[in-house]
Amino acid sequence: MLKKMGEAVARVARKVNETVESGSDTLDLAECKLVAFPIGIYKVLRNVTDQIQLITLANNKLKSLTSKFMTTFCQLRELRLEGNFLHRLPNEVSTLQHLKAIDLSRNQFRDFPEQLTTLPALETINLEENDIVDVPVEKLAAMSALRCINLRFNPLNAEMKTLRTGGARDPGQGQTE
After folding, report:
1. What 8-state DSSP symbol labels residue 132?
2. What is the DSSP string of 73-115?
3. What is the C-alpha to C-alpha distance for residues 85 and 158, in angstroms, rounded to an integer?
4. Could you tell me the strand order of the sheet in which 54-56 lies?
5. Do 110 and 131 touch, CB atoms closer than 8 A?
6. Are 93 and 70 in contact (CB under 8 A)?
7. What is the spatial distance between Cα 130 and Cα 141, in angstroms, rounded to a whole number?
8. With b meaning 16 or more CB within 10 Å and e meaning fewer, what string describes 124-138?
9. pLDDT band, residue 1 (cuts 50/70/90)
10. Are strands 175-176 and 148-150 parallel, antiparallel or unpaired?
11. Which of 11, 40, 63, 169 has the most neighbouring CB atoms within 10 Å?
12. Tens digit of pLDDT for each residue in 134-177?
């Protein structure tokens, strides 16, 4: 077990170093068995956080993200968090004013993360395969940049399901474009 843990830590370190050394705008920590975002990464990335536009933390074991994560990477354009154990987002997600796409599919959200409705640039929200019952339809309709929302395989309440005959951004349809 220690060997596997050591391999996972080495993999994370290697990926972070690749981002720093190459000056990449992407940090890919998918499938690294993370249960939390490593605190040490903030220090290593401190000189490049403003240039990072895409972070992938897919298929880990994350249960939450901290407010520090959101405020540190406030220049993000895309955040991929699919396949974790997330059930809520910190309020500081509202600092991601440039975010265009967020993938929260295959997590454990019971409530729609309404903080997302405050993000002016957000075009795509993927919440497929969660446990969401209610959706803030009015707030979503007011999002001028929103182009696609995927709510497939959520136990939407009967009221949401009857919206299927509605307009283009109708969350009851699962995905709209």
Report:
1. -
2. TTT-SEEE--SS------GGGGG-TT--EEE--SS--SS--GG
3. 26
4. 26-28, 54-56, 78-80, 101-103, 124-126, 148-150, 175-176
5. yes
6. yes
7. 21
8. bbbbbbbebeebebe
9. low
10. antiparallel
11. 169
12. 999 999 999 999 999 999 999 998 766 655 434 444 444 444 44
Residue 10 DSSP one-character state: H
Residue found by looking up tokens 């969350």 in the block: 171
Return all residues near 48 (Cβ < 8 A) that are at least 6 apart.
Answer: 19, 20, 23
- Token pair, residue 31, equals 């499938």
- DSSP class of 134: -
Quote the pTM value. 0.88
Q: Are 137 and 162 in contact (CB under 8 A)?
A: no
Q: What is the pLDDT of residues 14-70, one digit of tens each?
A: 999 999 999 999 999 999 999 999 999 999 999 999 999 999 999 999 999 999 999
Structure tokens that stand for 138 in this block: 């009015």
In contact, 20 and 45? CB cutoff 8 Å: yes
**Which tens digits make up the pLDDT trace of 149-158?**
999 999 998 7
In the chain, what percentage of residues exceed pLDDT 90?
82
DSSP reduced 3-state for 39: coil
